[in-house]
Design brief:
Blueprint: H1 3-8, E1 28-30, E2 40-44, E3 51-65, E4 83-100, E5 125-141, E6 146-149, E7 156-160, E8 169-171, E9 177-178, H2 179-185, H3 191-194, E10 201-203, E11 208-209, H4 213-220, E12 224-228, E13 231-237, E14 241-254, E15 257-270, E16 275-287, E17 295-309, H5 317-320, E18 334-337, E19 343-347, E20 351-356, E21 360-367, E22 370-380, H6 391-402, E23 406-414, E24 423-433, E25 436-446, E26 452-460, H7 464-467, H8 470-476, E27 479-480
Parallel strand pairs: 9-18
Antiparallel strand pairs: 1-2, 2-10, 3-4, 3-17, 4-5, 5-6, 5-7, 7-8, 11-13, 12-14, 13-14, 14-15, 15-16, 16-17, 18-19, 19-27, 20-21, 21-22, 22-26, 23-24, 24-25, 25-26
Length: 499
């Protein structure tokens, strides 16, 4: 599915459409107590306060333009026809902003003086904790019906926006998310980013203003915005509510593909609670094919609502005690199921699913909008319990497959150690694809039971130094599926092509 799948929160049918405060604002702070229409300040600004229930929904209909499956070659290959699709996604969560100490633990207000509760003092900062009530998506139409959901084990989330106007990071203390789970809970319509749609200055009824780039990213789902003609108008303003109209065009890039989106809708700001309590935006997008995802033409409606609520027990100080709410590098890793559910690997978020079925998983690494490396993970013939392929045969088979593309052997040997046993054998090769110098890192991973998985990393030789040992980090993380793992890695997702 494309990043649209991420925007819409379903796995790519290929892969096309979710992404999804602190008293976290869909809103922010406001100079209160002023007469209606006289210099009211609406701006974003995280602050401690009570809890809320947030609901983010996206409904879309249009055309998905899938690309060719991997390993489909030849000029005679025929592009698949555009597919009609209908997508619905829903994310509902309870949210509470908390003050955390330098070690990421919650600062309990009962244990410290009020004067010591200010963010920024003693290394303290604000985190947003969320408990997911529902996170699901469904896709129908001419494509194969698909659905996605989130595992209960990772339903406790931490959200943070380290840089003003930057992306919102979401992770779970319960363990690594899968890519499909991440696409359900991070991105489009996130309350922490929607505050950027507010004026951020004193406005009166009838005033016009320009929402920031961060606001354009929040409602478009683009990684980078190149054109932002969004305009906001203060339509109404009274003692309790401010209604703002937002419309215009956003152009940008997502996963290396360019897109253009027209937006038209409104948002309402609750002056008493100091947050944005409803947003409804109609969107029309044309997305060009990129290195990761196919093209699309889609009309959609994004709706976000917020209501005050007492934080549930799952977000209480007692329940959060002892849990670090830091978003660490380890927590940002994603878990990917191997072909056939035999195993799982961990990778950072710059690796994206390009294709996935029961026999092969293809990941591409995107750096600065370009593909820097590719990983093909496929089932290999089972060797039988306690047996594995001979390394010499493995190396010879690689040379036979590469034929005249082979230049020289870079090295070979065992990599890492699996607590559950098994073996990972690596062969590094320098070669050529046409005129391009290429490096391949091949792996054969064998389980104690005799199952085998073949992995091939491909990258330009010029990028080998920068790539470093990322292949070994991923393959060292490989774990074989067993009853100890509980739910399968792919739970909540669905097998099938991702484009």
């Amino acid at each position: 599915m494309t990043r649209w799948a991420r925007d819409l929160g379903f796995h790519r049918v290929g892969r096309a459409l979710v992404r999804g405060g602190l008293l976290t604002l869909l809103g922010g702070s406001l100079t209160f107590g002023q007469a209606p229409g006289v210099g009211v300040v609406l701006d974003g600004g995280p602050r401690l306060g009570g809890g809320s229930r947030v609901r983010v929904e996206l409904k879309a209909r249009g055309l998905f333009r899938p690309g060719l499956p991997p390993m489909t070659g030849g000029q005679a290959a025929k592009m698949p026809k555009p597919l009609a699709l209908e997508v619905e996604t829903r994310l509902v969560f309870s949210e509470r902003p908390v003050l955390v100490a330098r070690d990421g633990r919650v600062v309990n207000a009962r244990d410290v003086k009020e004067s010591a509760l200010k963010p920024g003092e003693g290394g303290r900062s604000i985190r947003v904790v969320r408990h997911v009530v529902q996170a699901a998506s469904a896709i129908n139409g001419e494509v194969r019906p698909m659905a996605a959901a989130i595992r209960p084990a990772v339903s406790l989330l931490v959200a943070d926006r380290p840089e003003p106007g930057g992306p919102v990071w979401v992770a779970s203390p319960g363990g690594p998310l899968t890519r499909s789970e991440l696409e359900l809970v991070e991105g489009l319509g996130d309350p922490l980013a929607l505050a950027d749609l507010l004026p951020g200055k004193a406005v009166s009824r009838g005033d016009r203003y320009r929402p920031s780039q961060g606001g354009a990213m929040a409602i478009s789902g683009y990684d980078a915005v190149t054109v932002n003609t969004l305009e906001g108008i203060v339509e109404s303003l009274d003692e309790r509510t401010c209604r703002l109209k937002v419309s215009g065009r956003v152009e940008g890039r997502v996963l290396g593909g360019s897109g253009t989106m027209t937006c038209d809708g409104f948002l309402t700001y609750d002056r008493e609670r100091g947050w944005l309590d409803r947003l409804e935006i109609n969107r029309m997008e044309v997305r060009q094919p990129g290195p990761i995802e196919a093209g699309l033409e889609v009309k959609s409606t994004l709706t976000v609502s917020r209501q005050a609520e007492n934080p549930p027990a799952t977000l209480s100080d007692e329940r959060l005690a002892g849990i670090s709410l830091d978003i660490t590098a380890a927590r940002l890793l994603l878990r990917q199921a191997g072909p056939g559910g035999l195993c799982s690997i961990l990778h950072d978020r710059r690796w994206h699913v390009f294709w996935e079925d029961s026999k092969v998983v293809v990941l591409k690494r995107l750096d600065a909008g370009r593909v820097a490396a590719q990983l093909n993970l496929s089932q290999a013939q089972a060797a039988g319990k306690g047996r594995r392929l001979d390394p010499v045969q493995f190396r010879d088979d690689i040379r036979k497959v590469l034929k005249d593309r082979f230049v020289r052997l870079l090295g070979e040997g065992d990599v890492g150690g699996d607590p559950a046993g098994g073996r990972r054998y690596k062969v590094g090769v320098e070669g050529r694809e046409g005129e391009l110098p290429v490096v391949w890192y091949y792996y054969l991973a064998s389980s104690p039971g005799g199952d085998q998985v073949f992995a091939a990393f491909t990258l330009a030789a010029a990028g080998a130094a920068e790539f470093g040992e990322q292949d070994e980090a991923i393959m060292t993380s490989l774990r074989w599926d067993s009853p100890d793992h509980g739910e399968k890695v792919g739970a909540g997702g669905s097998a099938g092509p991702r484009r």
